[in-house]
3-oxosteroid 1-dehydrogenase (Phytohabitans flavus), 500 residues
Amino acid sequence: MYFSSQFDRSYDVVVIGAGDAGASAAISAHEAGAEVLVVDKQQERDRRPNSRYAAGYFVVPRDVDGAVAYLSAMYAVNGELSEVDPALTRTWAEETALNPQWLAEQGGASSKLFEGGEHTTLDGYESIDIHRGEWPRGVPVTGCPVFAALDRRLTTLGIEVAYGATAQWLLTDADGAVVGVQICVEGRTVAVRAGRGVVLAMGGYEFNSRLKRQFLPMNPVHYYGSTANTGDGITLASEVGAELWHMNAWPGYLVAHQPATGYPGGLPIDLWAAGGFNAPPGADLPGGFFADGSGRRFTREPGRQHSLHLEVAGLDAERLVHPRIPAWWVFDERRRVKGSLVNTRMGPAGPVREIEWSADNLTEIDRQWVRRAPTVRALAAICGMDPDALERTVATYNAACASGVDDEFGRPAHTLTPLGDPPYYALALWPGGSNTSGGPRRDADARVWSVRGAPIPGLYSAGELGSMYGLLYPSGGGSVAECMAFGRIAGRNAATRKPA
């Protein structure tokens, strides 16, 4: 925090971060009449915000009251409900319901993909739909279509964006109100006045190993997304006294990890060779399951999605090891030939094309990134699993497939395809996901709150930096929905705030 009354440049609103949340904030502030500057530390020519790695799903409440009940039930699981302002959950439900129409107004498009939230035992789960952004005809596919639409809109509106500009400090007045930001551009330090407000939309701390070790309950955790997400917004907000929340939360599952690809983070997998974890009834699905380090199955594979990491985290208190880190995805030849093991619709192997992964997986097998063996026992041996345990696991799993009933974990019958003929394969999997959720606490008006229990004047936040999601995540697309909704709220509230 620096006190400042001298500025090199002046704007009404400064938005730090140019992903979905930052773009939404800048667009809304501009439409409210503000002069806006967007600051992003990545260079324009090769920038890859987290938004570009997303599949483009976003949550859309079909019934606002039901969606409020669903989010409230999610908070209650962790005992957090009493600490969350009811106005925040209602604002989330009301504002995210507007996302499809608002995206269309920005030149984007979407359609409903499926119905229902992820946690089907919670009240209100049936009140939300999942939409997916769509690419207009003739537009090259280079990432998430939601981000592409918002990014084009920034250009169309003529909103100024300073790329390659690092935010160093938030600038305050003598009373502690945020009045600007000090940035560094090409080695030059520039003090920028934000007469009405600053919006932090800088993403999480996925690629800050120190913060991950400090806040996450397991190690290592490998995220896919922007390597520029190093927790800068947490530092800026903390320096002006912001309260932090949800620092140990993230929408987590199991990912592959292979630094030899040139990408240091996680790689989302494609369980069914159908674009992700969803397995529609009637689909021709290959067999396979997840096993721990001893060769024992431990979860209902297609059903956990963004809370799977909570199962993976279990510590063996006797041996003082995490037996599911890494876990193993065990599958057969039928899955190998069906398509890339890594998801090519999102993440580093998706449209951003940060890495390549072969469609038949043979290149990766030859490089021993994927283990192959002629028998189940041999596969267990090369993976360090107990051969007897893995053989029993395969026998139990195949028996469940034959009967159509998974007594152990309740996997849906239409996904129960037996492990077939050899060879057999295994891919090491690690806890990971798309983003962390922690950061400065915000309210229904997207204002950042201080550790003293009051809003910090002039400071707003949006997106994954200080996400409102805690232990549980509503469904695929929760982050993109929140980015658009609270980006709009932050932008328009900053733009209409009384000038400093």
